[in-house]
UniProtKB/TrEMBL annotation:
Pfam families named in the record: AP_endonuc_2
Listed GO biological process terms: glyoxylate metabolic process
Gene: Hyi
Family (UniProt): Belongs to the hyi family.
An example molecular function term from Gene Ontology annotations: hydroxypyruvate isomerase activity
Protein name per Swiss-Prot or TrEMBL: Putative hydroxypyruvate isomerase
Enzyme class: isomerase
Record carries keyword Protease: no
Keywords: Isomerase
Record has Acyltransferase as a keyword: no
Superkingdom field: Eukaryota
Known function: Catalyzes the reversible isomerization between hydroxypyruvate and 2-hydroxy-3-oxopropanoate (also termed tartronate semialdehyde).
Domain Xylose isomerase-like TIM barrel per the UniProt entry, residue ranges: 10-200
C-alpha cells in the first residue's frame, strides 16, 4: 500500500515511486510465499494530491503498465498471479486511480500478461457501473478473484441493499467460477453472528455447512 501515513494507497500507478513499488512488491512476494498465497493485489494508488486527474492520466497509465509488466515477470518466477482491483471514486476514495472494470480490462490488455487478472469487488462495481450480470459475463475470462459487500452500506450480503446475492452466486456458478469469494464488508455487529447469512444460503441450496451436499440432494 505504500506509505499510508503519508496518504498513499498503493504505488503501482504513481509516477516517481517505482523504486518503492518494487521494494514493496518484493516484500509482498516474500510474505505470500511464506503463507502459501498465490495471489497478490497490486494496488494502483491515488492521483497525486492537488493534481488534475485528466492531466496526469496518461503518465499514470504508462507508469502502471510498466510496473505491471515488472510484476508479471517477477510473479511468473514464483507461479503467482497479480490482481488489479478497481475501487470506486464516488464514495470510497475520490482520488483512487483505477475505478472501473472497463479501465482495468483495457490496461490488462495493454500489459498482455496471462498471470495478471482482475480482482472484481462487486461493491465497487455496482457503485461505478451497475449492470453486474453483464459485467460478470463480459469480464469473466479476466477475473482472478471476487469480493462482495452489500450496497450501499457495505455490510453483510443479506443486509438491506441493492444486490441480490443468491442470484449473483448462482450466476458465478453457472459461469464456472471456482475461486474464492472474499467477504470484504464491515459486519453490522458480531463477526461470527454476521456470518449467519452463509449458513442460511447453504441451507437454501440444500447444502450442509461447508457447502457439501446432504443426503437429500
Amino acid at each position: 500500500p505504500g506509505d499510508q501515513e503519508a496518504g498513499e494507497l498503493g504505488l503501482a500507478a504513481v509516477p516517481g515511486r517505482q523504486a518503492a513499488f518494487r521494494q514493496g512488491l518484493e516484500a509482498a512476494v516474500h510474505y505470500a510465499s511464506a503463507v502459501g498465497c498465490r495471489r497478490i493485489h497490486v494496488m494502483a494508488g491515488r492521483v497525486p494530491l492537488g493534481a488534475d486527474r485528466a492531466a496526469v492520466a496518461g503518465e499514470m497509465e504508462t507508469t502502471f503498465i510498466e510496473n505491471l509488466r515488472y510484476t508479471a515477470d517477477l510473479l511468473a518466477q514464483k507461479d503467482m498471479i497479480g490482481l488489479v482491483e478497481p475501487i470506486n471514486n464516488r464514495i470510497t476514495d475520490p482520488r483512487y486511480y483505477l475505478n472501473t472494470p472497463h479501465q482495468a480490462a483495457a490496461i490488462l490488455e495493454k500489459v498482455g500478461r496471462p498471470n495478471l487478472m482482475l480482482q472484481l469487488d462487486l461493491f465497487h462495481c455496482q457503485i461505478m457501473d451497475g449492470n453486474l450480470s453483464r459485467n460478470l459475463e463480459t469480464y469473466f475470462p479476466l477475473i482472478g478473484h471476487i469480493q462482495i459487500a452489500q450496497v450501499p452500506g457495505r455490510h453483510e450480503p443479506n443486509s438491506p441493499g441493492e444486490l441480490n446475492f443468491p442470484y449473483i452466486f448462482e450466476l458465478l456458478e453457472s459461469l464456472g467460477y471456482t475461486g474464492y469469494v472474499g467477504c470484504e464488508y464491515a459486519p453490522k455487529g458480531d463477526t461470527l453472528k454476521g456470518l449467519g447469512w452463509l449458513r442460511s444460503y447453504w441451507e437454501s441450496r440444500g447444502l450442509q455447512h461447508g457447502g457439501t451436499s446432504n443426503a437429500n440432494e
